Amino acid sequence: MAPYSTLLLSVLLFLSLSPTLLFADSTYSGDEDTVHLHFYIHFIENQTEVVVAKSNIQVPGSFYNFGSIVVVDNPLTEEINITSKPVGKVQGFFSVMDSLTVVWSANIVFTTGEYNGSSLAILGPDDITKPVREVSIVGGSGCFRRAQGHILLKTVSVDFDTGDAEAEVDVYVDTWRSK
Ligand SMILES: *[C@@H]1O[C@H](CO)[C@@H](O)[C@H](O)[C@H]1NC(C)=O
Ligand SMILES: *[C@@H]1O[C@H](CO)[C@@H](O)[C@H](O)[C@H]1NC(C)=O
Ligand SMILES: *[C@@H]1O[C@H](CO)[C@@H](O)[C@H](O)[C@H]1NC(C)=O
Question: For residue 147, which of 5, 66, 140, 166 is within the disulfide window of CB 3.0 to 4.6 Å?
Fold first, then answer.
């Protein structure tokens, strides 16, 4: 705990129970900044993502069977063209539900630019029938340490023969900026 006096702490607690005031790590200013980032994910079957487990239960309309675990190390780029400037990778996996929903358990890892070396942890369901899906950001590292937020995913193209796809990503993340 930071060295608040008991009196000061009581006043602060009385004034507000907001996380900002209760945030006692002295390396953080307590100022929240919302960062917006925009880029594209490329899903390339058997190259940058691979099905490592599956059942034989088919899901109508789905490229994957129920219970599939798909490990991803998919590239992120600034523009839709995969040859455009790299941003990083989405690394982890998604699991396939008995519907057109997948559940993400992955990290957005930045390998270039201002956020090189930082990452965002994403977790949650993604109903791929919806034009825009929201997935939670539950944490992060580096510039995004203790981050919270969400991403919005929009499918841009899908190849139903190969399973390859491209999606647009908007990141909205609140960070606690270091002093
Ligand atoms: C992607 O960029 C490369 C290199 O600039 C270019 O040759 C190619 O035509 C582009 N592809 C598309 C689909 O725009
Ligand atoms: C990103 O950071 C790594 C590790 O510090 C460094 O090796 C690499 O050159 C950086 N990449 C860019 C594009 O700045
Ligand atoms: C990916 O690999 C699996 C297993 O070898 C194969 O069944 C599938 O057809 C491959 N998909 C593509 C698009 O190459």
Answer: 140
